[in-house]
Recover the amino acids of this structure.
């Protein structure tokens, strides 16, 4: 029997988290797949840090990251590299996850090279190509090309149906982030933290391109003032290496005794950091999905989200990068235990931890029960 050649493409930190369980599942699935891992390395250090957690070694590394790279730089390098790879390797299926520029350019390379493209985490939409920028554009392009849409929720699958995508190509699998989270928490114990033992802390991330400049500064100034008002509450912020974030973070938040600025954490450290936090303050996509699984409220530093399920469930509250909304939500969550418990105790809408297994079944030709219309 000929083995189906599947290449799993990964560019950035969140893609590594969400594609890793698919790679592990494809490798142990009974039908023999010939699985290749290609990293574009749109991220370098943060990607290597994540792959190490899952013990995954790339077969091909395009090594494209440059300091302070532009969207055009990343698009051109990935398109060129993927185009050559597809022409030379002729994979049966190319898999990529999410909405980064790696994913968009990979899907375009598949389109030009007539390669079948499978989109993991398909169908997320805000309806506005400028928010988040450029991710909404990226995932729409990927959706246009996909032969397999692996939607994480019924809502995201319905978005695709409304856009006129072929219903025979839309599957509801759950989100592979839940698989990754369970894999890691099931195998690890909490590593040491920089926060004093027993002290309460808020865990923060902030890196979205559309709030660079004024938005980032407003968030950091608000956090600085909150930290000054609450000397017993720590803020732990593993800072993204992007200079657009690093520079204002050090300038505005550096030197405060209860604000801990660290480098990016690996997934083991970050999940345990989330688990121990009082609440999360974040503009990350993945964090909005992980928090409900960990029963942690998230104040989302965005005005819109493509992940409405967490907001509807009540775990996530949109506060945008706006001082008044952030301050008011933080103060209420510190003072109002009932509100806190309500946000913390909602069920997780993103799946049961078997999304990767379903994706493997579908790729083997046995997954029709996961079709949206099944
Ligand atoms: C990218 C994705 C975004 C995703 C985020 C996850 C795009 C357009 N953006 O944004 O959707 O949410 O990753 O974190 O695809 N850098 C390093 N080392 C690293 C990673 C980044 O030094 O390991 C620095 C480099 O200077 C790099 C810059 O960060 O040029 C920006 O990286 P880039 O991938 O272009 O954008 P992100 O903001 O990370
Ligand atoms: N994450 C991590 N270390 C960190 C910050 C985030 O491991 O210091 C994980 C987080 O748990 C989630 C993913 O990285 O799974 C989210 O990545 P990011 O916020 O960079 O991207 P997004 O999800 O916004 O695209």
């Amino acid at each position: 029997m000929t083995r189906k050649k599947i290449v799993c493409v990964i560019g950035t930190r969140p893609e590594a988290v969400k594609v890793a369980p698919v790679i592990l599942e494809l490798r142990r699935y009974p039908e023999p797949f010939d699985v290749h891992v290609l990293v574009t390395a749109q991220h370098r250090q943060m990607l290597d840090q994540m792959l190490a957690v899952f013990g995954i070694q790339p077969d091909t590394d395009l090594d494209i990251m440059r300091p302070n790279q532009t969207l055009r730089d990343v698009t051109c390098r990935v398109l060129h590299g993927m185009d050559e790879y597809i022409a030379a390797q002729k994979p049966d299926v190319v898999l990529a996850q999410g909405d980064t520029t790696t994913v968009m350019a990979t899907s375009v390379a598949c389109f030009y090279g007539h390669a079948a493209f499978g989109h993991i985490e398909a169908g997320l939409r805000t309806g506005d190509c400028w928010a988040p920028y450029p991710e909404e554009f990226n995932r729409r392009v990927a959706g246009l090309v996909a032969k397999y849409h692996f939607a994480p929720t019924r809502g995201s699958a319905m978005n695709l149906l409304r856009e006129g995508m072929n219903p025979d190509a839309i599957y509801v699998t759950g989100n592979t982030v839940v698989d990754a989270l369970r894999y890691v928490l099931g195998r690890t114990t909490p590593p040491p933290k920089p926060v004093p033992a027993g002290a309460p802390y808020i865990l923060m991330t902030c890196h979205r391109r559309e709030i660079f400049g004024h938005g980032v500064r407003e968030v950091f100034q608000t956090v600085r003032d909150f930290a000054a008002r609450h000397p017993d509450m720590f803020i732990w912020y593993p800072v993204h290496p992007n200079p657009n974030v690093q520079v204002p973070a050090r300038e505005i938040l550096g030197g405060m005794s209860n604000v801990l600025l660290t480098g990016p954490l690996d997934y083991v450290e970050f999940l345990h950091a989330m688990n121990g936090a009082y609440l999360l303050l974040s503009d990350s996509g993945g964090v909005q999905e992980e928090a409900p699984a960990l029963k942690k409220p998230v104040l989302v530093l965005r005005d819109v989200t493509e992940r409405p399920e967490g907001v509807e469930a009540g775990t996530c509250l949109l506060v945008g990068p706006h001082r008044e909304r952030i301050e008011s939500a933080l103060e209420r969550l510190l003072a109002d235990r009932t509100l806190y418990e309500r946000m913390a105790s909602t069920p997780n809408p993103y799946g049961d931890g078997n999304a990767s297994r379903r994706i493997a079944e579908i790729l083997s030709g046995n997954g029709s029960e996961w079709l949206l219309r099944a």
Remarks:
- The chain has two domains: 4-174+354-370, 201-344.
